[in-house]
Amino acid sequence: MFKKNEFYTLQDIAGDTYLLPYGQALAEQRYGFKMNETGLYLWEKLDTCNDKETLVEYLHKEKGIKSNVARYNVDQFVDRLIQFKVIKVETPSEDKPCKILSIANINLGLYGDPIFFYRDELKLFERNAERINISFTVKVEYPDFVQGKILIRTPDLIVEEGREYYILRYPKQKYIHEVRFTKDGVKAFAYVFETGNDTDRKLIGDVLHNAMRVFFLYYAKARDCYAINSASILYKDKAWLFSGPSGSGKSTHVELWQRLFDVECLNGDINLVVIEGKNAYVLGTPWCGSSRIYTNRTVDLGGIIFLAKDIYDHVEELDQSSKAMMISQRMITPAWTEKMLEENIEFANRLKNLVLVCKHYCTKNFEAVGVIKQRIDESKYEYAREPDMNV
Predict the structure, then answer these.
(1) What is the dihedral of CA 353, 355, 360, 365, to 10 degrees?
(2) H-helix or E-strand containing 285?
(3) What does the DSSP 8-state code read for residue 331?
(4) Rounded to whole angstroms, how far apart are CA atoms 362 and 256?
(5) What is the mean pLDDT of residues 321-347?
(6) Domains and CATH numbers, the chain
């Protein structure tokens, strides 16, 4: 399929039509072209034609040009525009993915050098699947410039919105140009510098691992899956999420649970939650921050406990709006726009009615676990559950 460079425009100058560069194409000193009638006709047809043969057929049938002459004109026109980067040919990749991951029943195809996907967390999710829902492709090349509106700017990450893509730029990463993904969340492309050093490629892979998380969580919203920054344990066959800002004691609290009750930690940093009917579940993912604690299991969600440091241990019950607000604030599912934020809040509003949501003011002492454990044990009488889904 032909794709036009968005920084070219047709302009009438003294009665003649020119195809001229502007913006980024002009900055790159791209050529302009004087267009004749045939060129103008072909330029318009490029929007709907997928190959040269279709263009030749159009010239022959609609313009009455002999087939051999039409083919010559099309070859000259298309090849010249490709040579000077006025258009490019996009062809669907027929290459097989180097890996397929199955995360939350979403099959993610990974394309590119396998060393970019070296992380141990991914191995637990590898599958031999026939169908791929979304794809993440690493290209060792410089991308065409895409102009976008800046949505987020931090020292480490810039998020832009273009016409067709969201673009992630990493100012501090010298080996990565950008990562972009389509607005339907189906395809992502990472553009990286050429480097023959495997150590550098693994460093690139670390950044791409996080970029892949952003891409995946954006798409997962369509499956009603939202991510909450939290550490989780398995207690009485349910997942319990402990959430709070950095320094609130999530890791310490989970360690106390493990020492006292020998519970399993499911994920040390990020938990993906899905709602099915009147039930909520935690789905395993390979993203776990620096904790290196993760699982590929699906577990019934029991509740979300927000932690805050205090000099004595006690539980505060929350009103309905506070529950939804605190859940949405701890989400790491993208909220780059007002609409995205509204979608996060809508999910939080539904979730708060299905599981225990409370705030635990706690110390670093063993007694802190006893206080919240009592509240958790009481909660089993508060929330009616439907039969478990088949997972």
Answers:
(1) 180
(2) none
(3) B
(4) 12
(5) 97
(6) 2-89 (1.10.10), 99-223 (no CATH), 225-379 (3.90.228.20)
